[in-house]
Design a protein that fits this description.
The complex is a heterodimer of chains A (142) and B (615). With 142 residues, chain A is mainly α. Chain A has helices at residues 3-30, 34-37, 42-71, 77-103, 116-137, and strands at 105-106, 109-110. Chain A has a two-stranded antiparallel ribbon with strand order 1-2. In chain A, a hairpin with a 2-residue loop joins strand 1 and strand 2. The chains are: A mainly alpha (142), B alpha+beta (615).
Chain lengths: 142, 615
């Protein structure tokens, strides 16, 4: 499996999707769409903005991970596989959780879709931890 | 041990990521704690302060979970009923302004940075000559008018500036002119009134904490440590103390459990879920005439605030003044011993309240409430027409909703036709016209306060018999200003089979509005003066003849009547005598002149008794 290629694809795709979501949100703002801007929909606005921000950021992290893999050639496929899966899981669950949390919500509380967020956040932290540990322990380039 | 990347040394201690994580957690916690603190006012000594306690928490806490409700409350005039005076909260300019029309002499206003100052004749100086300069620290109101309170320097006791700001007119008037009261030569001190009286309803969980009952000792001997949970009528005024609710619902599992069960939360009061009578009492705690049941309950309220909490039985905690029900009670006798004219001035003789801000009294006497089934179904409540939070189906701007806080269904006949299935012919007025509106006939503008009339909140049908008995203008005559009571009685008999009462000569020959304007007491004159400025009345009665009568009313003894007449006069086109047509009922001769003899005769018959509204 070419993990670097995989994460480049995922990263750029996530950037495309969530930058597009950003454009949609700007349109909702620009056209003063009540379903997004009314004060009663403050929770939706917050959740969707978080979905946009987290999705775009995770896209960038995927690209950084791909570039990291290019620098440090993997030697332990199982660890790479685990890190890659966790990062991709986070890339899906975090923004999707936020987005779903804003589709149906309860006044100041997001909808149950937001339950995906802590799962995604855990996966993200795990993957970041594994990446950071590996990079921290890496010897200087020869 | 696996090694993640080729060339990487055997795993070392993951110290850095762990430290980074711990640092993030500590930083987040510090931010959370710092934002979770309530503002501390304990350092302020010269005015009442906002301090949480007694199970209350403040609207800031409510905001996080109820953003929509918070926003509509924030836009309401309930919130701004009491505010700390700052350049941002005062509606009038304090930038080196001199108010010439203040009692005793000019009042000078100044702004120094974020502080506001006023120099004026001391209202507590018996001689009425000494000038004082005081810091303005608090405000009352914003919708119709704004009153300003200054720090007296005596504990937290507040004094009131002798002039107030009219919001719509953008002008200052003497405070005394803003209430329905006979002319006075000088300003009457209201020092300590906020601490002893206003705090009960213009703040949330207010505690006067006077060292003696208000009015029992000279002001100079009175001190106060007045406190409230929050200034203004905030969330917890209607929902009750929220600390336990906020604490319990920090648990997300509990919150989502409540969301999915769609049931009420027993840690807080939701007026909409209360029994209809208890629901209306939530509003009635302030929108009623009430008194302490006895001296003991007054002492308790002074120290600890009023005992009523939303959801309680209001009647168990205070005495609701309703003369047609409890005139002969000990509490009423005690009240009348202090102010013999109170009932006469504040209620029509049949018990209908005539002062603004006491709408609960009107509701109590409305058939839609009084005759409702015992099981509480089909009972009119305040929420039948009013929405304390703007609803999602209300397309109006927040500002439009805030003026009256009406529910969308109450903007037309929707609230009434939920129970009353009447035909379109019932009103005998053109569909879509003002006369076809339920409230126009059943809730006429016969209640007065804050320099304007509002709709009576006691639902009733127009009745000339009631008008003759009480002197209260009837709905028909408030639109058909050019018609006599005899004309109204004839139509009510023809349309609804109502018996005609016996009418005097004037009532048969002179337009009812003219009679009330010339002969009536100050309250009736105010009602007619405002009616003459209402577009539906001008449309129904013609407007050419109104200006001379309003000009005459501008010379009224009562400031309040004069102010309303001036306001109504501004709604009229320029007066043209050549447009006046002879009309005996309006006392206009055939040549367009007024029948001065009859006008003067009626003015001589005027009810000049001293009238003081408790607003």
């Amino acid at each position: 499996m070419d993990y670097a290629r995989r994460h480049l694809r995922v990263g750029w795709s996530a950037l495309l999707v969530f930058a597009t979501l950003g454009l949609v949100l700007e349109a909702l703002q620009g056209f003063k769409v009540a379903a997004y801007l009314d004060v009663a929909n403050e929770t939706r606005r917050l959740m969707w903005r978080l979905a946009h921000a987290h999705g775009a950021l995770l896209g960038a992290i995927n690209i950084l991970f791909a570039l990291t893999l290019k620098t440090f050639v993997p030697s332990a496929p199982l660890v790479i596989q685990r890190t890659s899966a966790a990062l991709i899981g986070a890339t899906i669950l975090l923004p999707v959780g936020f987005f779903l949390g804003g589709v149906v919500f309860y006044s100041g509380d997001p909808g149950v879709g937001v339950l995906l967020v802590p799962v995604g956040a855990t996966l993200l932290l795990l993957s970041l931890f594994w990446i950071a540990r590996a990079v921290w322990n890496a010897p200087p380039p020869r | 041990m696996m090694r993640p990347f080729r060339g990487v040394r055997k795993a070392e201690s993951p110290l850095l990521p762990a430290v980074a994580l711990a640092g993030s957690a500590v930083l987040s916690g510090a931010i959370f704690v710092s934002f979770d603190r309530l503002p501390v006012e304990s350092a302020i000594a010269a005015r009442p302060v906002q301090t949480p306690g007694d199970g209350y928490t403040s609207s800031d806490t409510c905001r996080a979970c109820h953003p929509s409700q918070y926003a509509s409350w924030h836009a309401s005039y309930h919130r701004t009923m009491t505010q700390v005076a700052t350049p941002a909260t005062v509606l009038a300019s304090f930038d080196e302004v001199t108010v010439t029309d203040a009692p005793g002499g000019p009042m000078q206003l100044q702004r120094e940075g974020q502080t506001l100052w006023a120099a004026f004749v001391d209202p507590d100086d018996a001689g009425g000559e000494s000038r004082i300069r005081r810091r303005v620290v608090m405000t009352t109101g914003s919708h119709n008018q704004q009153i300003y309170w200054y720090a007296t320097g005596n504990s937290r006791v507040l004094g009131q500036l002798p002039a107030i700001w009219l919001t719509a007119e953008r002008t200052w008037i003497p405070r005394r002119a803003a209430i329905m009261a006979p002319p006075a030569t000088r300003h009457v001190s209201e020092t300590g009134a906020w601490n002893g009286v206003c705090v009960a309803c213009h703040a949330t969980d207010g505690r006067p904490q006077l060292d003696a009952p208000f009015g029992s000792r000279p002001l100079s001997e009175l001190t106060a440590d007045t406190r409230a949970v929050e200034f203004g009528i905030a969330c917890e005024a209607c929902h009750g103390p929220g600390q336990a609710h906020a604490g319990a619902n920090r648990n997300p599992l509990r919150r989502y459990g409540l969301h999915f069960r769609n049931r009420g939360d027993d840690t807080i009061t939701q007026p909409a879920r209360l029994d209809p009578r208890r629901a209306s009492q939530v509003c009635g705690q302030c929108h009623s005439f009430w008194e302490f049941s006895d001296a003991s309950s007054e002492r308790q309220a002074n120290a600890n605030g009023l005992p009523y909490r939303p959801g309680d039985d209001l009647d168990a905690t205070r005495f609701i003044v309703q003369p047609n029900r409890n005139l002969d009670s000990p509490a009423m006798r005690a009240l009348l011993a202090q102010d013999a004219g109170f009932i006469r001035d504040t209620f029509w003789s049949d018990g209908m309240v005539r002062a603004t801000g006491r709408e609960y009294n009107g509701l109590l006497e409305s058939p839609c409430y009084r005759k409702a089934p015992a099981d509480g179904s089909r009972t009119m409540t305040c929420f039948s027409c009013h929405a304390m939070h703007k609803t999602t189906d209300d397309g109006r701007a927040l500002n439009d909703w805030a003026s009256g806080q009406l529910a969308p269904r109450a903007l037309g006949n929707g609230a009434c036709v939920e129970c009353h299935r009447t035909t379109a012919e019932h009103s005998h007025h053109r569909a879509g016209s003002a006369g076809a509106s339920c409230v126009e006939c059943h809730m006429p503008h016969t209640t007065y306060g804050l320099l304007k009339t509002i709709r009576s909140h006691q639902i009733a049908s127009p009745s000339v018999t009631a008008t003759v008995a009480t002197g209260r203008p009837d709905a028909c005559s408030l639109c058909h200003l050019d018609k006599t009571l005899a004309w109204t009685a004839a139509y009510l008999e023809r349309w609804y089979g109502m018996a005609k009462p016996t009418l005097g000569d004037d009532e048969q020959s002179v337009a009812a509005s003219v009679l009330w304007l010339l002969k009536g007491d100050a309250g009736r004159r105010a009602i007619i003066a405002q009616a003459m400025g209402r577009p539906p009345a001008q449309q129904a009665s013609g407007s050419a003849w109104l200006a001379p009568y309003l000009a005459l009313t501008q010379k009224d003894r009562y400031d309040a009547v004069r102010i309303i007449a001036t306001r109504s006069l501004k709604t009229l086109p320029a007066f043209r005598r050549d447009q006046l047509q002879g009309n005996a009922e309006l006392l206009i001769n055939a040549d367009g002149t007024f029948d001065a003899e009859r006008v003067n005769r009626l003015v001589r018959l005027r009810d000049n008794r001293r009238l003081v509204y408790r607003e």
